[in-house]
Amino acid sequence: MADVAAAAQVSTATVSRVLNKADYVKPATRKAVEEAIAALGYIPSGAARSLSSRSSRIIGAIIPSIDNSIFAAGVEALQTHLSERGYHLLIGSSNYDPEEEYQVCRSFLEQHAAGVIMMGETHSPDCLAVLERYATPFVNTGVYSPDRPYPCVGFDNAGVAATAVRYLLQLGHERFAMIAGITTDNDRAIGRLRGVRAELAANGLELPDERVLECRYDIAESRAAFRTLMRRAEPPTAVLCGNDVQGFGAILEAQHSGIRIPEEVSVVGFDDLVLSRHLKPSLTTIRVPTQEMWCRAADMLLALLSGKDTPRALEIETSLIVRESTGPAPTR
Amino acid sequence: MADVAAAAQVSTATVSRVLNKADYVKPATRKAVEEAIAALGYIPSGAARSLSSRSSRIIGAIIPSIDNSIFAAGVEALQTHLSERGYHLLIGSSNYDPEEEYQVCRSFLEQHAAGVIMMGETHSPDCLAVLERYATPFVNTGVYSPDRPYPCVGFDNAGVAATAVRYLLQLGHERFAMIAGITTDNDRAIGRLRGVRAELAANGLELPDERVLECRYDIAESRAAFRTLMRRAEPPTAVLCGNDVQGFGAILEAQHSGIRIPEEVSVVGFDDLVLSRHLKPSLTTIRVPTQEMWCRAADMLLALLSGKDTPRALEIETSLIVRESTGPAPTR
DNA sequence: CGGATGCCTGTAATCGCTTTCTCATATCCG
DNA sequence: CGGATATGAGAAAGCGATTACAGGCATCCG
């Protein structure tokens, strides 16, 4: 920076002013500084900046697993969105484990992250405490809980899952099953399962435990789960999946074992991944505008950072996309 | 840090020594400091550290697009691998554009990245220059060019693609087509196409331009490309895809338009994504151990950073995975 | 025409750590 | 037992920015 200042015949304070677009700087001076910067190929030190300004342009995002289309698409959108606003994205994955999430969070704080975006609202007390202690704002995504004190951008997983159930009820289904995500420490998975249960209960139907199989968002495991369900004495006529990947597992397993979808059994996914519309049969699912969700979460976080006032809970619209994998309940 | 030092009744220099695991510190003193750190919930400032030590624990990775399973899996593995070694991963995407890559690279340098990992070996001169200027080592992944001066971890795209061609030739195929990735600024896509062309030429066969369709790694575009190829007067009996996603497009399009794979046409992918084994027919492809590739790239970069000596070019083993999507050439 | 005002720029302290000296103490050996 | 050698710990100088604070110089107005 001293070199730039010398080259432009100004002080480092002025260079700093030019860099930060603030304050008064005479156009001619500004130009001289900018030319010096370009000529010297000067890149300001982010470390020094954040040290001295007590703020950084780094945002951390903690994702359960990047290796899942839904998160990958979100991270991609987030990265682009942030970089357009001059921020950098630090990523970490928690593997759905609050303790790992806490560790990642600490490492973000170590890097002076200005804010953090996390999935869900189930965080370890330590994690919340350390964020609080370092006065670092955060936003929960994938959930919508206006009554809770934490900023969030997402939707009501239970309510949305209930929508899918209502649609299947209209089609005359009565024997339901669910391939759910692992519910341990995963409020989204829990919410979806709860929503399904509640809506069925409201219609006098039950979802017995043996009709709920939890598995990871993994095609092989989901295929196995679907196979297990369909081999039961009384197989379900409708299978709700916790996520599209599980829906893919169901459809692919059906293709392999000759089960006809939707004639024998209807399948509904959740997320609307790109592949869903291309499979045969295509997958009926809940569309979640992932990219938008992450960008809105970033916006909210940036607003929080700059002290702008912003709603602290934002609901993202989801919609049921009916495709080929669902149909009327088979008549026995 | 001063608080910690005070609590442990030592100087900040000693706290620093404890933190950096170096130098001599009496076990008792070390323990006192560690307890003080834990008691105060102290998190050292990465910015101050890198400012003062002129080195950071940040590695930047520039990926063309995170929203592609192959990169997502790689990034996931990379993040985990680095975090186990005390490093943080900064990510950026280039959209296959060298200029964007350069900008991302600059922003990494701004954050004092200790090293950078990039895809491929096609980088803008500016990018190379700035990395050089800031003495920041980098590793190219997805390519293997032992003769070039830049560290790389990957494989010979042309050579590997040729393997797939040889296999198809053995099956009696003579009319080939290729759904290639967009070759602009993408040396991997170029290499694969070149390898296919070369191997065919070596066997007296030609791959005319009208039998090569470039499209993005996107199911919809690949479906369209496959459809176009198969509607030709003389459709190919073997279609090579630049990537598994394009292979998925081919298989899914075939499912929809009633084209029988492999009876009418054989399809080969590249990468061996998870879905490949689950589609029906399952996709014959080249397996690329992505996770391993990224981890080895990280290892090489860390070795470069610590001055350890390390080979500067590492070849990753790929293998042809024969599945259901390929078979003998149809007899006319 | 003098002082107030506003615009622009410089000086220097500071951010939280690392690291080089420097020095005190403990250990060792002949 | 004395001096050389390790070992352990502190003092203080930066690292490269930001940001009060201060001050110079036009401009403006009474």
Report on the architecture of this protein.
The structure is a homodimer. With about 325 residues, chain A is of the alpha/beta class. The first copy, chain A, has 3 domains: about 1-45, Orthogonal Bundle (434 Repressor (Amino-terminal Domain)); about 55-155 and about 290-315, Rossmann fold (3-Layer(aba) Sandwich), CATH 3.40.50; about 155-290, Response regulator (Rossmann fold). Helix content of chain A is about 45%, strand content about 15%. Chain A has helices at about 1-10, 10-20, 25-40, 45-55, 70-85, 100-110, 125-135, 155-170, 185-200, 220-230, 245-255, 290-305; strands at about 60-65, 90-95, 115-120, 140, 150-155, 175-180, 210-215, 240, 265-270, 285, 315, 320. The longest helix of chain A is centred in the N-terminal third of the chain and has 16 residues, at about 70-85. The model of chain A has no long low-confidence stretch (mean pLDDT about 95). At the A-B interface, helix 4, helix 5, strand 2, helix 6 and helix 7 of A face helix 4, helix 5, strand 2, helix 6 and helix 7 of B. Chain A binds a DNA duplex (30 and 30 nucleotides) through helix 2 and helix 4.
